C-alpha cells in the first residue's frame, strides 16, 4: 500500500503541475500576452487541458484510488490521508462520469458562446446570444444527467463550486435572507442619501496603486510569494501554494474600484497562501469551495476595508496621497461614502446591502432555466421583472440587464450563489473571531492585521480543501452556513450610517 | 497515408504546444516569478519536460515517421512535406537514441552543477566547480557515444546546435579566421585608442528604454506579436510563431549594454516572427540553427546598429534624450566609441574585432576536454595561456577567466562555436544583400529598415528549420559558411576608424 500511495501522490502531483501550468497560460494571456497570440494560446491551453483530463481520468489513478479507499475504512475519517483519498476520489468520479465527447462539445460551444456573448452585450441585443444560451442550458442539463440520481437538476452544477451543497440548502438560506435584505433597503431608501460625489474626481493611477500596495502589505500579503499586475477584470490565480498572484483594474474617475478590488483579491490570495504547505501539489492544496474563497475576499474587502476602524487608521494617508481631492473630506464622510447604499444595475458595482439580491435573482433564474420552467427567450423579461421586484429599478437595456455577466456564456451555471454564500460566511467567521479576539476593532484601527490573518490561517486557511464548505463552517463557527450573522452585521452597520 | 500524416501533424502540434508551455514557464520564472516559488516552478517544468520527452519518443510517432519516410522517397526532397518528415525523424532519432536513465541523470547533475558553478564563480574558486565539470564532461562523452559511429566525439554535440555541421568544418573555418583576426587586433593596438569615457556617464533607465523601443519599432518589431521586459540576462523566447518576446538588461552607468542588447534580441525575435506561419506548431517552425539565429541578432546589432549610417540617423535623437551626457559629443565620436576595439576579459562585453577569439579559445578547450587531451583540473591554466596567446592579456582570477560563462555548467559543450559562426554568416548575408540592395547604406541612414527586413524574411526567415544551416547559407549566398566576408567587413570598418 505504501507503494500505491507513493504512486498515487506522484500522479496527483503531476496533475497539480499541469493545473498550475494551465493557470499560468491563462494568467499570461490576461496580463502579458500580445493580442496577436490569442489563437496559438488557445491551442496551447487546449493541449494542456487535454493531457490534464487524460491524466485525471486514467485507469491507473482510478485503480489506485479504488484500492486505497479500502484502506481508509478502518482509519480516522478526518486524517489527512483519508481526506486526501476521499477528495481525490470525488474529483476522479466527477471527471470520469462525464463522457469525453461531452467535454469536447462543451468546450467547443462555450468558447464560441463567449465571443458571441461579447458581441451580444456590446450591441445590447439578446437575440444574438439567445441560441447559444439555449445550447448551453441543454448541455448543462446533459451534464447534470451524468450524475443521476439527484434531488434537483441544479445539484451537480452547484457541487462543482460547493462540494456537498444542495440546491435546497441554498434556497432555504436565500429564502430566509431575502425579505430581511429587501426590508433593510426600503428603510434606507427613505433616508437622505450620503454624499459621495468626491469619489468620482480624478484620481491618478500611480497614487491609487501605491495606496493599495501599502494596505495589502499591511494585511500580510507576501510579495515573496505573490505579485500584482493590471488586467481588464481583476482576478487571483495561483501556481501551487507558493505563488499566488493578484490583478487589479484602475478607474481614474472612481476611487473605490481599485482600492476595494485590491483588498478583495488580496483576501483570495491570503487564503491560498495560508493553506498548509504539506498539501501542495495535492487536491487538498486548494480552497474548500468558491463560497469559502469568497468569504475571505469579502472579509478583507468589507468587514475590514469598509469599516470605520480601518479608515481611522488609513484615511490620513489617503488624504496625503490625494490632497486636492480629499482635503476637505473628513474620515467619517469618506467612511459613509464608501458604504453608500443605492440600488444599482450592475452586480460587480453593488454595495453590501444590495449585492445579495443581484445573486438571488440570478440563482432563481438559473434554477428555472435548468428546470425548463423558464425558456431562454423569456430570460430578459424575467430578469427585468425580478429586478423591479427586488431592487425597485428596471434596466434600460439588456446590456445592463440580463447580458451583464460573463458567467452564463461559459456555461457557469451554479457559480453565482457562491458569491452571496461567501458574504454570509464572512460575517459568520467575523462573529466567531470577535469572540476569540474581543478587541479586533482596535486591532484594525492600529492596522495590526496579523491577529486577524493568524486567526483565519489557523481556523480556515490551513485546512485547504480537506473539509467540505459546510463541514468547515460548522467546525469553525458551530453552525452551517446561515444568514443571521450577515444580517446582524448589515443591520448594525447601516442603522448607524443611515440613522435608521 | 493522408490519415497517418494528419495523425503525425497532430502529435507534432501537441509537442510544439508542450515546448511553448515549457518556454512560458521559463520566461515567467526569469521575468515575473516571485522568488519564493522557485522550487515549485522547478517541479512544474520537470513535469512538462517529462511529458514532452515521453510524447517526443513515443512508439506511435516513431512508427508514423517510419511509414511516412518511405513515402517521401519518390518525392521532391525539398518539398515542405519531405523536409517536415526529415526534420521530425532527425529529432526523433536523436531523442530516442539517448537512454531515459541518461536523460534523468544528466538533468540531475546539470541542475546541481549550475548552482555549484554560481558559487564557484562568486568565490572565484575553480576547485569547487572542478568535480562537476569532470562529471559533465564524462556525461557528454557518454552522450556522444549514443550516436556512434562518428568522425569526432564533438560531432554529436555540435549537431544539437548546428544540424549537419561537423567539428572538422568548424575547425577549418576557425583556422582560416584566427590569424587574420589576431593580425587585425595587433595593428589596431599600435594606434591611439578612441575616446569613449562619455559612454560611462549616468544614463537614466527610462530614456534608455524609450530609445530602444523607438529603434526596434523602426526595425519592424511587431508589438502585436511581442513584448519587452527586464531580466538579469537578456534573452529572446517564443511561444509559437505569433508571440516572440525579448528581455533587456539596463546598466545606468554604461549606455551600450541595453542599447545594443535590445537590437540584438530584436534580431532574434524578427527571425522567429518571420518564419512562414504554415510551419507553426511543427518542427520546421524554428530557426535553422543557433548560428543562423545569431547571424540575425548580430546583423541588427552590429552590421546595422554599429554602422555610421545608423548613427547619422539616430544620433540626434539620442542627444535629445541625453543632452547633458552627449551634448558635446559628435555623431562621429559616438560612432567610433561604440566601435572601440580593446582586448578584454569578458566575452559578452567584447567588441566585434576580438569577440571571435573568445569563442575560438572555448572551442579548442571544449574539443580537448571531450577528447581527453585536456583534464578538467588543468582548464584554468590552459584558459589563461590561450588568452595570453590570442588577446595578449591574462585574467587576474578564474571568475573573470575560465569560470565566466554559464554554458559548461549546464553541459552545453558545442554551443559556443555558434556565436562566432553567427558573426561570419551575418557578414555573408550582408554582402549578398548589398548586391540585391545596392543602396542599403542609404536605406539605413533613412531608417528605412523594411527593405532589409523584407530581404531577410524572403531569403532566410521564411524557411524556418526547413534547411540545415550550411544548406541555407549556400542557398542564399552561393557558398557555405566562410570567414572571408566577415574579415572584409572588419578590415574595411576598422581600417577606417583606426586609420590603419
UniProtKB/TrEMBL annotation, chains A, B:
The active site is at residue 265. Gene3D superfamilies: 1.10.1370.30. Its cofactor is Zn(2+). It catalyses: Release of a C-terminal amino acid with broad specificity, except for -Pro. GO terms for molecular function: metal ion binding; metallocarboxypeptidase activity. PANTHER family: CARBOXYPEPTIDASE 1, METAL-DEPENDENT CARBOXYPEPTIDASE. This is Metal-dependent carboxypeptidase. The lineage of its organism: Bacteria, Bacillati, Chloroflexota, Anaerolineae, Anaerolineales.
